[in-house]
Amino acid sequence: MPNQQQPTPKGPKKASAANLGLRALIIAAVATTAVAVLSSCSFVKLTEAGEKVDLRENSGTENCKRIGVITVSGVDKVGFINRKDTKVGSELLNQARNDAAGMGANVLVPLGMPIEGKQKFEAYDCP
Predict the structure, then answer these.
(1) The total number of structural domains that make up the chain
(2) Is 24 a residue whose pLDDT tops 70?
(3) Which sign, positive or negative, has the C-alpha torsion 65, 69, 74, 77?
(4) Which residues, other chains included, contact 61 with Cβ-Cβ below 8 Å and sequence gap of 6+?
(5) Which pairing describes strands 107-110 and 54-55: parallel, antiparallel, or unpaired?
(6) Which of 51, 53, 107, 124 has a CB 3.0–4.6 Å from the CB of 97, allowing a cystine?
(7) Is residue 67 assigned to a domain?
(8) 68: domain CATH number?
(9) What's the rounded Cα separation, in Å, for the pair 26 and 88?
């Protein structure tokens, strides 16, 4: 009787536990890297008009016309990772300065610290 080879089964190959573990590790590494890169990105760029808006304390607005209150919000988390407070604060200030310029204001006064990615400012037109 001639040597007969057994036919190889057709269809999808079963993944071994080692391959699944390696795949999960690679996916986790890529996801972690993406979150780290995105969390360091600046999402709000200061416009040319926004650059002309100054930040002051409330004591520097005696001779100014009050324009209104600006509430800005930004991204304080990317996925489950908290972004740096300084980065979030900088973006909130950039957004507020851009918005103030659009309202005809040239001075901003913060009305408190950023909380959960939100902050309020008072906008003024000063001589």
Answers:
(1) 1
(2) no
(3) positive
(4) 107, 109, 122, 124, 126
(5) parallel
(6) 53
(7) yes
(8) 3.30.110
(9) 29
Residue 51 belongs to a domain: yes
Q: Do the domain assignments include residue 30?
A: no
Whole domain around residue 116: which residue ranges?
Answer: 38-125
Whole-structure pTM over 0.70, yes or no?
no
pLDDT band at 75 (very low <50, low <70, confident <90, very high): confident
SS (H, E, C) the chain: CCCCCCCCCCCCCCCCHHHHHHHHHHHHHHHHHHHHHHHHCCCCCCCCCHHHCEECCHHHCCCCEEEEEEEEECCCEECCEECCHHHHHHHHHHHHHHHHHHHCCCEEEECCCCECCEEEEEEEECC
